[in-house]
Amino acid sequence: MKENYTVCFCMKVDYNDIADALEGHTKFEDVLSLFDVVQSVTHCSTGCGSCHDKVLGVISEIMMG
Predict the structure, then answer these.
(1) I want to staple 44 with a disulfide (CB 3.0 to 4.6 A). Which of 5, 8, 25, 32 is the partner?
(2) Helix-strand-coil percent breakdown of the chain, rounded to 5?
(3) Structural domain boundaries of the chain?
(4) What is the largest CA-CA distance in the chain?
(5) Residue 10, CB-side half-sphere exposure with 13 Å CA sphere
(6) Using one digit for the tens of pLDDT, what is the confidence trace for 28-42?
(7) Distance between CA atoms of 12 and 18, rounded to whole angstroms?
């Protein structure tokens, strides 16, 4: 497992929170639709929004294995 680190400082969302939100999603079709799933669970990128691209990168990394 990858080392845990904070991705969204406003909402205090870390790498493992995003991984947990993606649990059960085995198909990687569209990173933006998965972003919506992660955002609804974690509320990441709803504060200042500066972590948006970082969250997308983490989702891609997790789903690509």
Answers:
(1) 8
(2) 50, 10, 45
(3) 6-64
(4) 29
(5) 13
(6) 778 999 999 999 999
(7) 11
> How many other C-beta atoms lie within 10 A of the C-beta of residue 42?
20
In whole angstroms, what is the distance from residue 41 CA to residue 11 CA?
11
E-strand stretches of the chain: 6-8, 13-14
Please check whether the domain covering 6-64 is classified as CATH 1.10.10: yes
pTM given for the model: 0.91
Q: What was the pLDDT predicted at 30?
A: 86
The alpha carbon of residue 15 and the mean position of all alpha carbons in its chain are separated, in whole angstroms, by 7
Secondary structure letter of residue 27 according to DSSP: -
